[in-house]
């Protein structure tokens, strides 16, 4: 599946040239805008894989727009800027999903940056999902351990017997072990 890109610039000629270049290089241009507010609306609507924004946009400049897109974690951003505009982007320079490119930039530089930024964004997303999964698993394990502890204390069971009891109730009732454990905790802590 090709990378889905949205482009923003107050200069329609730049938008058309950039769109054509990206299409020729296998990317899908799914939105264009000359206004920062319009571009932000489109980003919220079509959820692109990447936004390429010019500093000069009507209504909201590329810096303000980049801060919102990165802050809300909507998609990675490449900002096309002049040397004099670089100072506006200092606070975004540490963001792994933001890259400022000074104009004019080579086509190879742009495509290399697009490729790297999209890969970085996907890696970060995958790592965040793994972290969420680990947090959920750790929380689940802690709840089951607490339920086992309560069974051991209140029914004089060994840890293995308490674990088997939770497992058996889960299988007999067709309910997850976490739900059984939560019910046990609720029963003994009320």
From TrEMBL:
Positions where 4-aspartylphosphate occurs in the chain: 54
Keyword Ribonucleoprotein on entry: no
SMART domains: ANTAR, REC
ANTAR domain segment(s): 124-185
InterPro entries attached to this UniProt entry: ANTAR, CheY-like_superfamily, Sig_transdc_resp-reg_antiterm, Sig_transdc_resp-reg_receiver, WH-like_DNA-bd_sf
Pfam families in UniProt: ANTAR (PF03861), Response_reg (PF00072)
GO process annotations (BP): phosphorelay signal transduction system
One MF annotation (Gene Ontology) recorded for this entry: RNA binding
Gene3D superfamilies linked: 3.40.50.2300, Winged helix-like DNA-binding domain superfamily/Winged helix DNA-binding domain (1.10.10.10)
Residues of the Response regulatory domain: 4-118
Keywords, alphabetical: Phosphoprotein
Superkingdom to which the source organism belongs: Bacteria
This protein's record includes keyword Cell membrane: no
Functional summary from the UniProt entry: May play the central regulatory role in sporulation. It may be an element of the effector pathway responsible for the activation of sporulation genes in response to nutritional stress. Spo0A may act in concert with spo0H (a sigma factor) to control the expression of some genes that are critical to the sporulation process.
Record protein name field: Stage 0 sporulation protein A homolog
Phylogenetic lineage: Bacteria, Bacillati, Bacillota, Clostridia, Lachnospirales
